[in-house]
Design goal:
Radius of gyration: 24 Å
Shape: globular
Oligomer: single chain
Largest sheet: 8 strands, antiparallel
Helix content: 10-25%
Order of helices and strands: HEEHHEEEEEHHEEE
Length: 294
Amino acid sequence: GETGKKAERWRHRERRRGRGRRGRGHVRRRRGQLPLFSSRGSSFFPFEPRPAPPTHPPTHHTRTRTRTKKQVYFVAKQLPVATPPEEFALALARLFLETYPLVSCAKIRVVSSGWSRVSVEGREHAHGFQSDEGGGCGTGRRFAEVVSSRGGGEGAATSSSSRYSSSTRVVAGVEGWRVLKTTMSGYEGFLKDSFTRLPETRERIAATSVTASWRYGGPCDYDASYRKALAALGAAFFGPAAGGHYSPSLQYTLFEMGRGLLEAVPSAESVHLRLPNLHFLPCAPVNSSVRFFL
């Protein structure tokens, strides 16, 4: 009857719970100053189907608005202030899997943002900060993604605040890192056919917004690994400080950045990079000797 049809639809419906953009902020006191950083996260939980009539009470369901928000804040308060986003995501995934028997997989994404003290009239402001995300300042947004599933047994690798298993994956990265080289960059040696109209060049502005992610093979010092990864990416893009190095294409630079990161961070198993071109074209307005870039 109609009740049986409803029950059948209920059994086959994919059940998901999630919550996004929950944030936390920390102020760290250091030598009389208060460096500030914040993080925000989102979560997603696939559920294992369990046949039951639709009239039964939802005893195994989770409330996503109030309870999940409180859990995120609770976990953040239990961890040390300087906890890396990877450890924060691992702690959240572990909590959700331990708390809810029907949750088969927890997917957590944490984005960490830096804040720089504002300078007013040449002096650092006592309590004013500005986000490093805006206006191309800083080194982009650091993020971490953790996917943890049931099963797979206990892993051999263990960290102080998390336990790895064969069903846990940790990915770290940076997004929105805008970088630019005013010289020592070209685009040459590419395949040419009857449709090619773009001439080769050995002198152009190279600008991009870097999105890089790398997967860890096991627990490590996440903060130190992130710093090494970012330094390796920057060294491959810019080259030595005195004169840099020449790049024949952005694709060539992308490959060198990935190779440099894997060499600098032994705990990284793989790396994924996305470097879209940001074009800056010289332009001289009519009746003006001023030259600028668009």
